[in-house]
Design a protein that fits this description.
5 strands; endopeptidase fold (from Nostoc punctiforme); alpha+beta; single chain
Length: 135
């Protein structure tokens, strides 16, 4: 991660949503106010961790690319982090409880996953196209 990206992360309030872009999906999490080995930590909810995890930014985004998505609610940072921690111990479920559901819940927003909805729509389009092709 370059120095500019580190500086931008340093100035963001706890609860800010960050993303680690990947080839097929974008993993999102919440910046905390904690530091470990000189790095800011992130609360995230991942399949690899089986649910809630706090990890340093380099573990959250192993490719080094982090995008600041913003702070979408009016809830105070302490409440956002408290709401996030309430998911400790819950299992990861792609369709119901993934990283996007997690950050939206923490911010008191509609608990939904834009990426799951997009992938679902794409799958429905493919299935529909294949069904029409067989007629």
């Amino acid at each position: 991660m370059n120095a500019l990206a580190e500086e931008n992360l340093f100035s963001c309030p706890a609860g800010t949503i960050v993303a680690a872009p990947g080839p097929l999906y974008e993993h999102v999490g919440l910046l905390t106010g904690h530091y470990l080995v000189g790095q800011r930590t992130v609360y995230s909810f991942s399949r690899a961790a089986g649910g809630f995890v706090e990890q340093v930014i380099s573990q959250f985004a192993p490719n080094g690319s982090v995008v600041v998505k913003g702070y979408p609610s009016i809830l105070p940072p302490e409440l956002v982090l408290q709401r996030a921690q309430s998911w400790r111990g819950l299992p990861y479920l792609l369709w119901e409880r993934n990283c996007e559901h997690f950050v939206n819940f923490a911010h008191g927003l509609e608990v939904r996953s834009r990426q799951v909805m997009q992938w679902g729509a794409l799958a429905a389009l493919v299935v529909g196209t294949l069904a029409l092709a067989r007629m």
